[in-house]
Design goal:
- It comes from Pseudohongiella nitratireducens.
- The chain is an alpha+beta fold.
- It has 3 domains: about 5-45 and about 55-150, no CATH class; about 160-235 and about 260-315, no CATH class; about 325-415, no CATH class.
- The chain has helices spanning about 5-10, 20-30, 95-110, 160-165, 170-180, 200-225, 275-290, 295-305, 305-320, 330-345, 350-355, 375-385, 400-410, 420-430, 435-445, 450-460, and strands spanning about 5, 45-50, 50-55, 60-70, 75-80, 120-130, 140-150, 225, 250.
- Helix 10 runs antiparallel to helix 13 (about 400-410) and helix 15 (about 435-445) packs antiparallel against helix 16 (about 450-460).
- The longest helix has 25 residues, at about 200-225.
- The two termini are about 20 Å apart.
């Protein structure tokens, strides 16, 4: 057992038998079943990279069953990497240490950032050797096998609904919808295949899911997270971040960046496109629901509102990152100016926003229209954010842009208290993110038998809004093109 998530175990409130370390090890390594467990794998479909892929399914995930927490919350436990299932096709159903560490750490980092996500209960080495072709270059090699125990209120995906709709199985589709409604309301309502759906309840659920999913994508943008594989089978019907594969976190701000080498050409799932992609995915879910929901106009109305709703959520999020209480139309200019500034030279997004808190609301009066206009403001701004710049300073060609931003930012901040601004910025801008190179260092150390970097990283991610010293520093130069630090494949 590499790691046991004590905090999550306490939150779930597992039965007493789980307190025995030997029991836990046997159950979480897939060598024995917990009492009452009836393991199963799930079948679903999905659109992958914009194309219908047909039937997919849990190729290496085995669900152990559900646990009811003390607060009444349902938790499904599943083992990822425990062996083949009915949906493994030609794969071995195993997972490697590399990908398992990435999922374990990132799901917990996301939870600590306050972003809805599946969770990770344990990380176990299997002792098996698993062969993978990391770069898809025809050079497979053995790696250590591992298993992650994932936990979530439900692992229901958009792809479950899509598969039922594609098969024309209305009864299955109704049952899935009923299950989704039961998991988002109090109490369980008996299901009968011939009963009519409560259309208003289904539409309300779908609208809520749309809002949750849009907020989720905005939260990813807030912290610089790029999922990497936003296929519809990787979208949670509970509004959670799910399936941590070739994900990444922005080091230098680059809206066109994707960590997934499979997507390097098309860049469908790049950072700046995630909002549009989740809207597209919600539209596919609406198409599936339309098979059994006769009110197509209501569904159409919901999906047609997605773009404006996302834009509104994004604008409000950016205002909070800047320390502004509520978005106003006049703020659109400062947001666009900021995005241009971040791209003007290699700039670490996380450090930039963290340091921007130090920029004073009320600077000295400057004579507008003179040669010195904005000089004090831009000097202060440079002093605040130099740590975020990979060049170490603002390049001369970018000084006019920095001057313009500094003056405009100070202008829109007028009337804002320094205390309130600091509160908004501190709660919106993490000081620590799970940088790709940090995870890779932990993986390489674990592979060599040293667990300390992993433990230190897990401890740091528990407090992402506090500075974590060297772990909060920007990406070192050696990691720029190091395997696993910038680009990743889906090999896992």
């Amino acid at each position: 057992m590499i790691h046991w998530n004590t905090e999550l175990a306490d939150e779930i409130g597992l039965p007493t038998a789980w307190q025995d370390p030997e029991n836990r090890l046997q159950w979480l390594s897939g060598n024995a079943l917990p009492p009452g467990s009836q393991p199963y794998a799930m079948c679903y479909g999905g659109h992958q990279f914009g194309q219908w892929a047909g039937q997919l399914g849990d190729g290496r995930v085995i669900n152990l069953g559900d646990v009811s927490a003390r607060d009444g919350q349902n938790w499904t436990l599943q083992l990822k990497g425990a062996g083949p299932t009915a949906y493994s096709r030609f794969a071995d159903g195993r997972a490697v240490l590399r990908s398992s560490v990435r999922e374990y750490l990132c799901s917990e980092a996301m939870a600590c950032l306050g972003i809805p996500t599946t969770r990770a209960l344990s990380l176990v080495l299997t002792g098996d050797s698993v062969v993978r072709d990391v770069f898809y270059d025809g050079n497979p090699a053995p790696e250590q096998g591992a298993i992650v125990c994932r936990a979530a209120p439900s692992f229901l995906r958009f792809g479950h609904f899509e598969l039922a709709a594609s098969l024309g199985d209305s009864a299955m589709l109704k049952q899935l919808i009923h299950y989704a409604l039961s998991n988002t309301s109090t109490g369980h309502v008996p299901f009968t295949p011939d009963s009519d759906l409560d259309v208003s309840a289904v539409l309300a659920w779908f609208e809520t899911l749309c809002e949750q999913t849009l907020k989720l994508a905005v939260d990813w943008a807030r912290v610089g997270f790029v999922h990497g594989v936003l296929n519809t089978d990787n979208m949670s019907a509970m509004g959670l971040t799910i399936d941590y594969g070739p994900y990444g976190w922005l080091d230098a701000y680059d809206p066109s960046w994707t960590p997934n080498t499979t997507d390097a050409g098309q860049r469908r799932y790049r950072f700046e496109n995630q909002g549009r992609i989740v809207q597209w995915n919600l539209y596919q879910l609406a198409n599936a629901l339309a098979v059994v929901i006769p009110d197509h106009e209501a569904l159409q109305s919901i999906v047609e509102s997605l773009s404006s709703r996302y834009e509104s959520l994004y604008q409000q999020m950016m205002c909070h990152k800047l320390g502004l209480e509520e978005f106003e139309p006049r703020h659109q200019g400062i947001i666009k100016m900021l995005e241009n500034l971040l791209q003007s030279q290699e700039t670490d997004m996380t450090i930039f926003f963290d340091r921007l808190k130090q920029f004073s609301v009320n600077g000295p009066q400057e004579n507008e229209g003179t040669a010195d206009s904005g000089s004090q403001a831009v000097t202060e701004l440079q002093h605040c954010v130099n740590d975020a710049l990979y060049d170490g300073k603002v390049l001369d060609d970018n000084l006019p842009l920095y001057r313009q931003f500094a003056l405009e930012y100070r202008s829109v901040l007028k009337g804002t208290s320094q205390e309130r601004r600091h509160q908004l910025m501190s709660s919106s801008n993490p000081a620590f993110i799970l940088r790709n190179y940090l995870v890779q260092q932990a993986i390489e150390s674990l592979d060599g038998g040293d667990q300390q970097p992993f433990d230190e990283l897990f401890q740091a991610l528990r407090s992402p809004y506090r500075d974590q010293g060297t772990l909060s520093a920007k990406r070192p130069e050696w990691a720029r093109n190091h395997p696993g630090c910038t680009a990743l494949s889906c090999s896992s």
